[in-house]
Amino acid sequence: ADVLDYHVQTPEDLAHYARACTDILFKFPFGTDELEGIAARGEFDLSQHQKHSGKPQEFFDDELKAAAAKLTDEQKEALIQKRLAERKNGLEEACSSLPTNMRLPIFAHCVDIILSDGNLVALEADFLNQITTFLELGPDEAKRVMEVLLIKNRF
Asked: How far apart are CA 40 and CA 42, in angstroms?
């Protein structure tokens, strides 16, 4: 039986910081309830931290001489290729060492980060396919996570 579902919040139901929000629902024996809410918070958190700390919150890649948020797809691909080449089996080792109950949440966070810019380049798709295998996730599990996060990140 399918125990997961999702609900896309209407604009009227959104928290002040959210541009969009999708609730992951779980069908418990006693009824369906929210398991987790995934909100597209935009730059809310970083802007608040920057405002109150007085410190810039951009990641700067010294090699590319650019802020990561402003990288082109080609620059992102080059950076990913470089990082993966530095340790051939590192990704598989890291994934296989995770406790089983942490694998799906870790996958969801990876998907969320990758899709946050609204683009999925070929290398990112390859990466997600790899970690799906390394985390020993079923294709249906991975597909459901992707569907929910694609809805969230379209806003």
From this structure: 6
